[in-house]
Amino acid sequence: MIFSLENIALYITDKGESYLSLGKSLEDYLEAILIIQHKNGMTRSVDIAEYMGFSRPSVSHAMKELKRQGYVTADKSGHLLLTVGGKEIAEEIYERHCFFTRLLTEAGVSPEVAENDACRIEHVISQESYIKLQKAYEKIGFRTDFDAKPEGE
Questions:
Q1: CA-based diameter of the chain, in Å?
Q2: What three-state secondary structure class fits 143?
Q3: Whole-number Å distance between alpha carbons of 146 and 153
Q4: Which residues pair with 2 in a beta bridge?
Q5: What is the tens place of the pLDDT at every residue in 26-81?
Q6: Is 11 in contact with 21 (CB distance < 8 Å)?
Q7: How many alpha carbons fall within 13 Å on the CB side of residue 99?
Q8: Cα–Cα distance measured from residue 38 to residue 43, given in angstroms and rounded to the nearest whole number
Q9: Please, what is the average pLDDT of the chain?
Q10: Number of helices and strands (H, E) in the chain?
Q11: Which residue, among 72, 64, 65, 61, has the nearest Cα to 33 in the 3D structure?
Q12: How far apart are the two ends of the chain, measured CA to CA in Å?
């Protein structure tokens, strides 16, 4: 279920959890932190800049905003850490990404195009549509229970 107020959306998952949509850019940063943290054990701003192909100042600005909103913290060494809320959103976005990437590749879309399209779809599809798609594909045996831990990325 989504309640919209102009560009802000409140997502309520099928588990009753809720979060405000941060927009594609900030959600992508949270997802990147999750992936890098899983791969390297820790995340630095420079890792995010390299992974996403963005400048360090752009990453710094985004991290300040995510810290301000309470989704990211930094330890004494400057390593970035997802808060509980940040991790929940990152895992939700990553799960959507996996679902749509797999759905598209199984439909015959090339892996590169599927990745790019999934990255766009994961941010714009309503929660209602996403849940209905998951349930419809579960009925035909399509695996939708993705572990929110990135695999080999």
A1: 49
A2: coil
A3: 15
A4: 11
A5: 999 999 999 999 999 999 999 999 999 999 999 999 999 999 999 999 999 999 99
A6: yes
A7: 26
A8: 9
A9: 84
A10: 6, 5
A11: 72
A12: 31
DSSP secondary structure letters along 91-109: HHHHHHHHHHHHHHHHTT-
DSSP state of 126: -
Residue with tokens 């797999």: 102
Rounded alpha-carbon distances, angstroms, from residue 137 to 44, 118, 120, 148: 37, 16, 20, 19
**Burial environment of residue 32 by CB neighbours within 10 A (0 to 12, 13 to 18, 19 or more):** buried
Domains of the chain: 23-83 (1.10.10.10), 88-139 (1.10.60)
Residue type, 50: E
Q: 3-state class of 75 per DSSP?
A: coil
122: CB partners within 8 A, 6+ apart: 27, 93, 96, 97, 100
> Is the separation of the CB atoms in 27 and 89 below 8 Å?
yes
User: pTM for the whole thing?
Assistant: 0.78
Please name which of 5, 47, 1, 48 lies closest in space to residue 28, comparing C-alpha atoms.
48
CA distance linking residue 151 with residue 111, whole number of Å: 15
